[in-house]
């Protein structure tokens, strides 16, 4: 039996963070928590700039149906990698439009300009009543509520090399994320 954090730990260990792409991986335990959340809720998920979570999915059926969208072509050998630059949200191939029931988002920046583009991409990808799980700073709370109707959750991500404390937001009742993360001081 593979322990819940093993795949996340393996991803983090084999994938150095590239500072020029603002790559900050979640901790192995945070990856495991988000994998659990997505695996319980999704049948087909889009991972926007969240490769650590996609590559740590344990549910092989979900992994086969889901896609990771990121500008870093290091994953281009994976058939489920889509090279995507958030500056061109409309360039997402039409075959993907409104075809996902879940998106996970962690952009490389926290500004409203960048969030506007990620929100546009999320709306393009999600089917009706699709679920959203994203991370950013708490100060973006009102902005994100307006854009994507998401609310902050108690469980916060541990991102070991990032100086800010991020918060998870969802547009649905995420009971698994209603408890504090023991890795994060609150
Ligand atoms: C803050 S990291 C988020 C990673 C996430 N915490 C994880 O553990 O998977 C930002 C991500 O955005 C990606 N990225 C950087 N520039 C991008 C761009 N122009 N378009 C799309 N993705 C980009 C990076 O490659 C990285 O995966």
From TrEMBL:
Keyword Transferase: yes
UniProt keyword list: Cytoplasm, Methyltransferase, Transferase
Subcellular location: Cytoplasm
Pfam families referenced in this protein's UniProt entry, alphabetically: N6-adenineMlase
PROSITE patterns, per the entry: N6_MTASE
InterPro entries membership: DNA_methylase_N6_adenine_CS, Efm5/EEF1AKMT1, Mlase_EEF1AKMT1/ZCCHC4, SAM-dependent_MTases_sf
SUPFAM superfamilies given in the database record: S-adenosyl-L-methionine-dependent methyltransferases
Any one GO CC term of the record: cytoplasm
Major localization class: cytoplasm
GO molecular function, one term: nucleic acid binding
Biological process annotations from GO: methylation
Keyword Methyltransferase: yes
PANTHER family according to UniProt: EEF1A LYSINE METHYLTRANSFERASE 1, NUCLEIC ACID BINDING PROTEIN
Protein name, per record: Uncharacterized protein
Organism per entry: Selaginella moellendorffii
Lineage: Eukaryota, Viridiplantae, Streptophyta, Embryophyta, Tracheophyta
């Amino acid at each position: 039996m593979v322990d819940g954090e093993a795949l996340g730990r393996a991803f983090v260990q084999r994938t150095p963070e590239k500072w020029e792409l603002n790559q900050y991986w979640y901790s192995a335990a945070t990856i495991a928590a988000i994998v659990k959340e997505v695996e319980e809720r999704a049948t087909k998920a889009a991972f926007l700039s969240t490769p650590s979570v996609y590559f740590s999915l344990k549910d092989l059926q979900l992994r086969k149906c889901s896609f990771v969208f990121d500008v870093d072509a290091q994953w281009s050998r994976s058939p489920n990698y889509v090279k995507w630059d958030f500056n061109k949200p409309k360039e997402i191939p039409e075959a993907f439009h409104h075809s996902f029931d879940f998106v996970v988002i962690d952009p490389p920046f926290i500004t409203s300009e960048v969030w506007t583009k990620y929100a546009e991409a999320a709306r393009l990808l999600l089917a009706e009543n699709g679920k959203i799980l994203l991370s950013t700073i708490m100060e973006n709370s009102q902005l994100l509520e307006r854009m994507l109707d998401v609310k902050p959750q108690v469980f916060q991500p541990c991102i070991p090399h990032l100086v800010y404390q991020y918060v998870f937001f969802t547009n649905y009742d995420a009971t698994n994320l209603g408890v504090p993360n023991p890795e994060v001081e609150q």
